[in-house]
Specification:
Layout (H helix, E strand, L loop, with lengths): L2 H20 L3 H10 L3 E11 L16 E6 L16 H9 L3 E7 L2 E9 L2 E4 L2 E4 L4 E9 L8 H15 L4 E7 L3 H9 L3 E11 L3 E9 L2
Parallel strand pairs: 7-8
Antiparallel strand pairs: 1-8, 1-9, 2-3, 3-4, 4-7, 5-6, 9-10
């Protein structure tokens, strides 16, 4: 390996480390290491979101050719290697379940997206059937090149508008306790924490879900 190539590899590693530090992902990395031992410990918040007291966030430093809207099954081909942990095949399965995907495109590329489930809220072992006026907002993901541009709160607000027109006035979401970026953008939209829970799984066999605190 040439000296130049070694230097570029080191630079690439340092860039990844800086990104993880910047977006509060160090704890997530540590938890992944513990997970390799067969132990998963995941504290998480249950949020209620909506249009009340929310204002549309301004784009920060973006060109006008960012387009937001509902994604269709044929758009899933653009989401190959999206980094969210789900494949285009998974996304197509979500469509078949009746879920919707709303996102932002920029010059033919997917910049950010999120999913909306109308039948159930499901996270780890925590499940809740939804009523006709409820929806679960989940799998919000912003591509790495577009992070730090305020896309997540903007997209979230656009989903509020769409769901309000559909008669969905009670919106839920989940954020892991250590996912600082997700919690931060929800704070921008005045989302309200309903409860703090703890999920524990040992060796992929035993799992528990505890409510640590309710904020109702």
């Amino acid at each position: 390996m040439t000296a130049a190539l070694q230097k570029n590899n080191k630079r690439s590693v340092m860039q990844k480390v800086r990104i993880k530090v910047r977006y509060g992902m160090i704890v997530q990395v540590i938890r992944k290491q513990i997970l390799r031992l067969g132990i998963e410990i995941s504290p998480f918040y249950l949020f209620r979101e909506g249009v009340e007291d929310s204002t549309i966030p301004a784009f920060k430093g973006l060109e006008p050719d960012y387009i937001s809207g509902i994604f269709l099954p044929e758009d899933m081909g653009l989401m190959e290697n999206n980094g969210s942990g789900y494949s285009p095949e998974d996304f197509l399965a979500f469509f078949k379940e009746g879920q919707k995907c709303i996102g932002i495109k920029h010059k033919g590329k997917v910049a950010a997206f999120m999913w909306i489930n109308f039948s159930e809220l499901k996270y780890k072992s925590f499940q809740m059937q939804l009523k006709s006026n409820e929806a679960y907002l989940w799998n919000m993901f912003t591509q790495e090149d577009y992070r730090g541009k305020n896309l997540a709160p903007y997209l979230r607000y656009k989903s509020y508008e769409m769901l309000h027109e559909m008669g969905k006035d009670t919106l839920y979401s989940i954020s892991e306790y250590f996912n600082t970026p997700a919690i931060k953008f929800k704070r921008k939209l005045n989302a309200r924490i309903l409860k703090l829970s703890l999920y524990i799984r040992l060796f992929k066999k035993f799992e528990w879900n505890f409510t640590l605190k309710s904020f109702r």
